[in-house]
# Entry
Amino acid sequence: DAGVIQSPRHEVTEMGQEVTLRCKPISGHNSLFWYRQTMMRGLELLIYFNNNVPIDDSGMPEDRFSAKMPNASFSTLKIQPSEPRDSAVYFCASSLRTGNSNQPQHFGDGTRLSIL
Amino acid sequence: AQSVAQPEDQVNVAEGNPLTVKCTYSVSGNPYLFWYVQYPNRGLQFLLKYITGDNLVKGSYGFEAEFNKSQTSFHLKKPSALVSDSALYFCAVRALMFSGGYNKLIFGAGTRLAVHP
# Structure
């Protein structure tokens, strides 16, 4: 079974540019999560979707960040315009939401983003 | 408020010795608890979970965790550490969402385990 697939694995771009991160969840999973990991702040939940609908976006740092899930097999996280402080590793995770919510999340290997 | 605490930034242990990585939690209601491991340049990998039942939970790679309700702890353990166990370990608890009980997790800050030959 293929795991969560993220692309690109590495992204280096200049401040002010638009950045789009992509995620393909595990087939059949109906919950999708975007996280950001930095040394200073650790692992932060940015947004999560259930059945393609955003449920909680309280972790999105500001309006420059947006996320979409147009269908069950694809999600994007966009930063526009990007800033150096957005440099981090961004993870996507998916899980199967069941009635008792006891299923683990499965993580992709992340996108390492560097904003110069 | 729901939270997870991992009191140690780093744990050092000699290969072959038992290891413990500590985790305490604070939740409303029954806790669903998880341990994940992160190797360099990789995403988090699920190790084990406690939902209900036996307090000692067994997981991947020989790891186990003990749920202690009175102490609100869920410590990760392994009887004999390997150098290859060196990684970053995260404890997590399911957060209750009043809007529908969705499976959002709250993660601890992580503990770096270093196993020395």
In short: The longest strand of chain B covers residues 87-95. DSSP finds no helices and twelve strands in chain B. The domain at 3-116 of chain B is CATH 2.60.40.10 (Immunoglobulin-like). The mean pLDDT of chain B is 91.
